[in-house]
Design goal:
It contains 13 helices and 12 strands. By secondary structure, the protein is an alpha/beta fold. It has a 6-stranded parallel beta sheet, sandwiched between helices. The chain has a 6-stranded mixed beta sheet with strand order 7-6-8-9-10-12, with helices on both faces.
Length: 352
């Protein structure tokens, strides 16, 4: 065979490997399938032949050495949101440390697009998938798309009815702490801004919001739960609805930091000083939160650590661990900055 390693690396076939190793095509196939029928000396000879022919860094050769694909699907619902970008970095860090390479896909909150992505990852033989589900994902469509044998971990958003391992923060506890903080500052009319009732994360955060109001003996006012897209534009839309309510709030707990930033800007355009005339708290503690104007009080969810933990849980599934033991709910903590008025005096009055 001429041309050397460089010339044949893309064209090498099982026939070439068999010829170089002095074995049959069927023996090479058995080695590729990690069959116990092949003697160790023969297996080593086949692997050496693949190395010599330039396939050491090919996915097939990697599978020979690990008995599994080195690629993992990383399916993110909205990479335009900095929170999910930070999550993706955490997942990638975890996968890298464990010898896996992520195949990243952004579904843009589109369930149909998500289905196509999952089917493609399955066809490419990934070792497993970590997914933050698109809004509206249901357990039935997920079951139809993926075989039960393919390891999969959900992160940051649950899929109701799914038994798949889930990795995420304690949304209810985080929301409860945030709203309790606003109540301690003297607020009695507090809005919840952003997200939709179809989102499990929103349901969990609203549960914490309600827990805090009930514990303080405050009324639950449906008009102060203002649903909107979890974006800056959604935050502006939600705060406008809250301010138009007859139960005009003096504070808002927001579905996430991006919603809080949109609400903060909208309040500023109305001449309402956030942290002085009106208190705002977000959720996630993305990098931008500290640099918001004013700096945003928010619930820290250890996003990158959650990503790394999701990678560890997926590896556990790949290695045959009990799926029930691979779920993880992380603790949250409130990070107090200027937007809630705790560092000064929040003026409790009707905003203009």
């Amino acid at each position: 065979m001429s041309g050397g390693k460089r010339g044949v690396s893309r064209a090498t076939t099982i026939v070439d490997i068999a010829r170089a190793a002095g074995v049959s095509k069927s023996t090479v196939s058995l080695v590729l399938k990690d069959s116990p029928l092949v003697k160790s000396a023969t297996r080593d000879r086949v692997i050496r032949a693949i190395d010599q022919l330039g396939y050491v860094y090919n996915r097939s050769a990697a599978s020979l050495r690990t008995a599994r694909s080195s690629f993992v699907g990383m399916v993110i619902s909205d990479l335009m949101n900095p929170f999910f970008t930070e999550l993706a970095v955490g997942i990638e860090d975890g996968l890298h440390n464990m010898g896996f390479v992520p195949i990243l896909a952004n579904t843009n909150e589109d369930v149909e697009r998500q289905t196509r992505v999952l089917q493609s990852l399955r066809e490419h033989g990934v070792a497993g998938i970590i997914m933050s589900p698109a809004r509206g994902t249901d357990v039935w469509s997920l079951a139809e798309t993926l075989p039960r044998s393919l390891p999969m971990v959900l992160t940051m958003r649950r899929v109701e009815g799914s038994s798949l391992p889930y990795i995420g923060p304690d949304n209810r506890a985080g929301a409860r702490e945030a709203v309790s903080h606003l109540i301690k500052l003297g607020h009695r009319s507090i809005a919840f801004l952003g997200g939709f009732g179809s989102m499990t994360t929103q349901k969990e955060r609203i549960s914490g919001y309600r827990d805090a109001l009930i514990a303080a003996g405050l009324p639950l006012t449906d008009e102060l739960i203002c649903e909107a897209m979890p974006t800056r534009a959604g935050g502006a839309e939600a705060i406008a609805a809250a301010l138009a309510s007859p139960h005009r709030p003096t504070a808002a707990f927001c579905y996430n930091d991006i919603v809080a930033m949109g609400a903060t800007r909208a309040l500023g355009l109305r001449g309402i000083r956030v942290g002085v005339d009106f208190a705002v708290i977000g959720f996630d503690d993305i990098v931008e939160a500290e640099h918001n104007a004013p700096p945003l009080t928010t619930v820290n969810a250890d996003t990158r650590i959650m990503g790394t933990r999701a990678a560890r849980s997926l590896l556990g599934l790949i290695d045959g661990a009990d799926p029930e033991a691979m779920s993880f709910i992380g603790t949250t903590r409130l990070v107090v900055r200027e937007s809630c008025g705790a560092h000064g005096r929040t003026i409790l009055k009707e905003t203009a």
